[in-house]
Each structure stands twice: as C-alpha cells, then as structure tokens.
Write the structure tokens for this entry.
Amino acid sequence: MGSTTSSSSHQLRLLGYPYVPDPGTGRGIDRYLHYLVEGCRQRGVEFGLLPTRQYNTHAEQLLRGEPSVLRALHPPPPGVVHAVSPVGGRVLAVLGHSCFVTTIHDVMPFHFWRAHPARYTFLRWCITLSARRSVRIIVTFQFNKNYLVEHLGVPEHKIDVVPIGVDPQTLGVDGSTATAREDDIPRLLFLGSWNPFERGGDLVLRSMPDIIREVPRARLIFSCASRSIPAMRELARSLHIELAVDFPGFIPEGSLGSVLRGADVFVYPSRIGFSASVLQAMHVGTPVVAGDCLDMPEFVSDSGVISPMEDPSKMARLIIGLLHDRDQRRRLAEKGKRRVGDFSIDQMIGRTLEVYHQVMSK
C-alpha cells in the first residue's frame, strides 16, 4: 500500500493545496485528488501526501493556507511533486522547485475574466507561472493543450492530455432505464448550481419563447441555488414565459437521477465549459444540448447536440428538432452512455502514473 506521509524517502509527492482528497465536497479537484491518492494506494505506488485542508474563504486560504504550505515546501522536497492545480503549482514555481508536474484543469480565467476579475487575475498568474516552470503539464482536454501552446508559448512536448476520470457511482445518479411518465409533457432541464449565469441559464430562458411557439406544452425545469432564483424569475417574467418555467431550487443529489430521467432534453449552454452535470445526464440517457464554448464540444463530441453560444434562437431550433424526433433522442441517449465510459478512473490513473515514470526516469 502507498504511504501518505511526507517522509523525505518518497520520490513522489501529491500537493493538493488548496484542495483536499474528499469526493464528497462537490468540488471537482477534491474528487480528482481523491482518485489519485486511492489509485496510488491500490497500485502499491509509494507517495507522500503534503498537508492539505479545506479553507472556507479566500481570505482564510491566503492568511492561513499560504504560510502553512510554504512551510511544508521549504526547503523544496526531493523527487517529483505533482500539484493537482495551478494554485499549488504556482507555489512550487515561486519556491524554485526544479521538478514538478502541474494539472491545469481548464483555462477559463482567460476567457471569462469579467465574472471574477480579482480571482481570475490571480488564477491567470498561477496558470501562466506553473505552465512555464513545470517539467510536465497534465491537461484534461486537447482544447486546453492548444491554448497553452498557442497563447502561453508552452512547448507542446511538455503537455500530456489525460481525460478526467469519473466513477459513475459518484455522479449521484444511477443509469437505470427511465420509467414511464404519467404524462407526455415535453420537459427541458437546466442545472444552474450556484451561478446559473455562468452556466448559460439566461440563454436557456431566452430560448423558451421560440420553443413555446412551436411546442406550446413544453416546460422548463430551471434548477439553481435559492439566492439566484429572484433574478431568474424576473427574467422569465420579462420574457412572458413564467407559466412555462418551474423553479424547484437546488435539486439534492438523492433526487437528481429521477429528475434527469424525467427530462426529454438536458440543456447546458455553459460559458465555463466542462461540467459533471453533462456526464450525469449522459449516464442516465438524457439527450444533451450544450454550448459551443471552451472544451465542451470536445467533451460532448457526437454524443450530444452543440449549439452556438449567445444565440438563443438557434439553440431553440435545435431543441425543437430534438423534441420532435424521438429516434434522434434515443440515438443520442445511447451515444451519451457510451461516452461516459471514455472517462474512466483506471485510465486516468494509469496515464498519470506514466507521466510520473517518464519524469523520474530522466
């Protein structure tokens, strides 16, 4: 079994900061770190896990987390350190560590900067610095590799594309066949989590007038955190579609499977790219309409319908086409279920260990 101490005898260390190896937090990088830790243990790979803890606010991370991780990494430990995010990679770069790998999960801060100017300016710096100083970089999609090469000047040979691994059991939904519904009302579903605007919820609402004109009985289930509902309700009222939209609030994981299976189409024109919500929909066989943004087209591939971003009318036409074509929905459901299998944890761990081996053998 692999060790999780920080002994100097280890030639491999995992740096989670500011994330923790816990699949239950809802944060994707926490889950990623958990899979790496468990994958190394199950394969008998000796490793050290540098001290990690979850910080509730950015201020706490800055005031308590930064001094803690700097102490843990000074002097730089021998061997290879894998920073599971560019925030940790930036710390290694600043300290002058000469042999570290960084995973860069996305390049969203370069595309969606106005949403969080201060935070994304910081993350841009982290991505740029860690990308240039790492001996190897792991990215989850080819889109991200292309961006680092073309816009940050990172040598292509330094970057490995390793698709993110997902355990279907941790998606919070099971892939059982949908049960017969009591009605034949066409249902669309959108999951907006804490910030529905970042996930394109306003575009979904703006597509509804066109959809209702063609499919008058269509209804939209618009799920998001309660703090965002008033603004979304107001937009629905301004579009005169309030009677066609349900706002159930945040849907808990235990109910998510039945809600997904009860939808005819899952609509997700996300401005921030990849999301596990799309995998959840595919896993239960709900056809997906996603936005042409960042890594989403590469991720969805031909297992869903890709709509141009910021074009609600075009998205409406694509959704209407799906609602009228039961055979296409069935084909997409089958492709979506197969697509989920491309994101296996075993494959992710195996390819990540290959990167470690290549770095250590130099």
